[in-house]
Design brief:
434 Repressor (Amino-terminal Domain); 4 helices; 69 residues; DNA binding; XRE family transcriptional regulator; 51% helix; Cro/C1-type_HTH; single chain; mainly alpha; Lambda_DNA-bd_dom_sf
Length: 69
């Protein structure tokens, strides 16, 4: 399973909120909700997040085998 816990940690370090993603960077409410629920998002969205936070993909997503949740 892919989960976005590193994104929330990165956002906390950079003092960003979901409001920042939606209002400042134009990310849709639905996309933010998908991230919060660990649902699939497009590679375009992942690329945009890496650009916004000037970080590597590992600071946005992590892979967790299904049995380790």
């Amino acid at each position: 399973m892919i989960r976005y816990r590193p994104l929330w940690e990165t956002m906390a370090r950079k003092k960003a909120t979901t409001y920042t993603l939606r209002v400042i960077y134009g990310m849709s409410h639905a996309t933010v909700q998908r991230l919060q629920a660990n649902l699939p998002v497009s590679t375009h969205t992942l690329d945009k997040l890496c650009k916004i936070f000037n970080c590597q993909i590992e600071e946005i997503v992590e892979y967790v085998p299904d049995g380790e949740l």
